[in-house]
Amino acid sequence: MAIATDNRTAAQDGFAGSIASLFAGFREHMERRKLFRATLRELNALSNRELGDLGLNRSMIRRIAYQAAYEA
């Protein structure tokens, strides 16, 4: 039983594929960065009491925002 797959990479697609891959990677990076900054802004807007209700403190905000954007 044979299974055919399409495992082409950007290098196999030539220069145009490389450029498209570069822009796709940049777009993904910018979207993740946007999510990171939005999460950071929203968590920083919470009071200490609201953060405590969530089981968080101010020193955890940056890590939580990073995890939401880059590890999800």
Mean residue pLDDT:
89
- The poorly predicted ranges are none
Secondary-structure element series: HHH
Q: How many angstroms does the end-to-end distance come to?
A: 36 Å
Overall SS class: mainly alpha
Strand content: under 5%
Biggest β-sheet strands, sense, barrel: none
The backbone outline, from C-alpha atoms, is elongated
Radius of gyration: 20 Å
Q: Percent of residues in helical segments?
A: 55-70%
Count of discrete alpha- or pi-helical segments spanning 4 or more residues: 3
Compute the number of strand runs: 0
Structural topology:
Elements: H1 15-45, H2 48-53, H3 61-70
Helix pairs in contact: 1-3
Descriptive notes:
This protein is mostly helical and 72 residues long. It has a domain at 37-72. It has helices spanning 15-45, 48-53, 61-70. α1 runs antiparallel to α3 (61-70). It starts with 14 loop residues before the first helix and ends with a helix.
Features:
single chain, mainly alpha
Question: Could you provide a short overview of the structure?
Answer:
The protein has 72 residues and is an all-alpha fold. The chain has helices at 15-45, 48-53, 61-70. The protein has a domain at 37-72.
